[in-house]
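Give me structure tokens for this 291-residue protein.
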Amino acid sequence: MSFIRWNGAFVRDMWAGVPVVSKDPTDLSGLRGEDVVPETLNDILTWAYVEKVEGTHKYLVLYEPSDPTATACQVTIRLQGYVFACQLSALGDWDRTETGAARAEQTLTLHAGGQKEPYMAQLQTVNNLFELIRRSVDARSSPGAKDRLLLLQRRVFDKNTSSDAVTLPAMPGESRRADAAKIKHAWTPKRAIEIAVQREDNKIVLANRLLVRRGDFVDVTATFDVFTLVRDRRRELRVYMSMQRIIRLKEQAWVSEPKEIKAGTSAPPAKSVPVKETFAIDDVEGMMDQS
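Here you go.
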């Protein structure tokens, strides 16, 4: 996964008064090129590329590892910020209907919490990545720049195109599992977002989604999910920053209202490709209710 760097400093280290993920390297200066998002748009245009998934309207954002024997990996970035709003329940905002499964999402909105410098550096980098995607897909419509609030979105379901029997992933609540089972011929719930809390002793433990609340400072691992759709004979681009892992680093560190609320638009994972990780949760005290 790739860290964001700005003006020679890693954004992770620019946040004041909050810890960093304990499993991360203390010194990021020795990271390989693919593990650091370039600072400028021109460098990003040569660092990553976008590839269409054959036979679909989906695209993958990839980079070539420095190891020539390794396969291309999905671009995965690390973001930090203060939670402004979130919908992280196991099935998101799904309305329990088959037609509603296509629109069901989990969301996480981040804000600067008064720390403008690291936050705006993240926004600029994200917007540069969005520009890479826009140019590569060559869609007439832009996915929308991020401004003030940083919106992350994750589709809850994958469309089931196989005739094979479907096994539902683990999820809390018998009623939710029963509802999902009714539509598994058409839609299958994705693997749950990994949610964790870093304790004061720096150990990271799996957690209940209820422990992520407005005002918390979090570290998020996210991928880019890209697709196009046609509306009024016009091809439109959709890009979601899809959260895969959320770690709460500090509880309710910021609670005031932002002065402006404006978030860009953004869409669903395409196919599974390798995702590089720099740390793993090693002190698991049990997966709690994620309902």
